[in-house]
Amino acid sequence: MHEKLSDASYIEISKKISPQQPSSTVTNSPGLKANSLSFFEVLGESVANIAPTATPAITIPVVFALAGNGTWISYIIATVACVLLAKQVNVFSRRYATSGSIYTYVTDGLGSRVGFMSGASILFAYITTAVAVLAGFAIYAHTLLAYINISLPYPVLIAIGTITAWLMAQKGVELSTKTMMTMEFLSVSIISILGIVLLFSHHFSINPNNVAFTNISFSHVASGLGLAFFSFVGFEGAASMGKEAKEPLKNIPRAIISSPLAVGIFFVIMSLIMMMGFSGTGHSLGESMSPLGFLATRNHVSFLGYCITIGAVISFWSSTVGVITAGSRIMMKMSSENYLPKKFSFVNEKKKTPTFAIGVSGAIIGFLGVGFALMTTIENTYEWFGTIAVWGFLIAYLLITISAPVFLYKSAELKIHNVILSLITAVLLMIPIVRSVYPQPEGPVKFFPYIFGAWLLIAFLFHEFKDLQLAKKAAVTDQ
What topology in the membrane does the UniProt record assign (predicted)? Predict the structure, then answer.
């Protein structure tokens, strides 16, 4: 089990390990390749999880359908919230390195029971996010193949995406993070070029109706905020690289804070440009399945549309690799604390990857992705899993926001500004949580809070059962 530290121990640790004096102290994660990832590669894990190419390609239109002209405001609020949240995560990542990420952080602040709930929540979020982005991968891969007159069913494309993502995650974290970061950089660059073309064709004058506070309501902005958050989820993925990062107490916090800030600025600008691009075309941004391709064709740069389609396919695929990688490290940590079978701690000696954890993650994700693609439309698969994934992230993020000031209090470092920042972050996170249940949404989405609640209940009961087993085993050993 996770070792509990007394208040005195926390004070002693905080004196020895501070943000100004980074340490290479690493918690339990045997077998992974230590000190192997540069800042660029650590950043690649967070950026791949976010998949910034995917947001203008498919998420911004969905947010626009909910928030309308307030789309850019939804993204500003989400950016601010995620940057503040990154500061809460960095309360821990600056002090020690771990492969357990949020699971370990919440455990250290709020105890084993709540920590396990946060771990279950983030694993739920990673798995459902992977299914959603695989649906996005299938949508854009289908479009890409159509250019060369090839048509494959969506379930087959999801299966291909799952298998190849699993293979990449198994290959080794250095190769996967370098590949993901490079591909995302190229894709974002191409989208940025399209944005500049759109600005040029509109004489660098964004339509005032799209940026002024007209036809905007807080209700609509709040409605779009949940999916705006979905554009950022997984930015904390770098925290699971604690064992593998070089200078983890320096590079991991930098990656965690810079990734949501940089992509947030990109999302706000692109939402404004895309709203401008669709204005007066007779087409609705909120109904477009290929908004960037449409804008590229309309502005006589069709070749950029083809490039963006390729970039979107790679981005969705990279995100799958990223969440499998991060999730497998958390499974390893849970295994080392006897909450999951020891097999989840197995690390391939040559590749230094948690083979079994990655394999189980890939199997679950592939089963859900292919299964739902067979039962419903690919669009529903993306929207449903993307929407329910937000619940897993928001609850885990809310718990880390509560845990950070508690941890600082235990280590005698709590300051008033820590409490204020934590409260502001919690309020911003509560907006999409409340909006997801009130007013009650229509369709299958209204059942999602109950599905997620059932998952947390199962996780709670599982934790209590395992704790009881461990206590009995300890009692027998003592005898």
Answer: Multi-pass membrane protein
